[in-house]
Amino acid sequence: MSDAKAVAVNKEMSGLSRAAVLLLSLGELNAAEVLKHLGPKEVQRIGIAMASQRNISKDNVISVLDHFLESIEGGTGLGIGSDEYIRATLKQALGGDKADAVIDRILLGATTKGLDTLKWMDPRGVADIIRFEHPQIQSIVLSYLDPDQAAQVLPHLPENTQMDLIMRVAALESVQPAALQELNDIMERQFSGGTGSKSKKIGGIKKTADIMNYLDSAIESRLMESIKDADEDLGQEIADLMFVFDNLAEVDDRGVQAILREVSTDVLVLALKGADDEVQEKIFKNMSKRASELLRDDLEAMGPVKLSEVEAAQKEILTVARRMADAGEIVLGGSGEEMV
To answer: What is the CA radius of gyration of the chain?
Structure first.
């Protein structure tokens, strides 16, 4: 496989797709050994990526393996015994998302227990566990979960309680040890584990905005309208901290280029179908002339598409952007997003 062809294949694949192909190439036993060291979110993301792979070409496999070998050449001789080597390898495979949490799980022997067990569960399962708990307990659990998981749990709770829970999350700042222990005890009725002795900073308006970012657009709009009806100032604060697709126009060029490297062409075309001119031009500007011309042609050739499909594609790109921002790889400006 020529170097030029390998580069072309790698550019078409996101870091997550490369990781999926690599694991599929390792075989079941070896892939399982890798996955058992990852956190719940990483397992979920890479599992979905593995399931979505279809008809992987020989060129793709060779390119991914070559890329992986090149990425570890700068590590230790055997790739063993180096924290930095492991961290770099996982960042390369997973795009840098939550590398610290994964390293803790591998290098410090962290185990999943207590509240952390919820992060391994499907959203409906979490909702079923907390459904009959006090709303304050429910809001703490939502604050404890990662924003995208919390956003998946919320729709499974009664619709007439959703706004109240979001308001409670916004009002939270921290949880004292006794309250955290009480919550952990509730979880211990079904799981084993313990909790620490320090208060934990969770919740708040920023956390609420993060959860809202991941909600289905229809649910997000309904809740935002209800929040503004109840407390207009709070609603505006949440809205100011939300990062929406149009805000990509305000991300610096280097950040946009980094995001584009992690997004497939099919998703990008669909997302831009519903984007305003400013966002489209921002994307075109940060692509090669040839790539931007092809993208424009694809957009013009695309027929009518469902709004829900466009919104899903935009959400997927925003998820990539937020993940990279959380990992410190890019800075999201605009719409009140906190600078890193």
So the answer is: 21
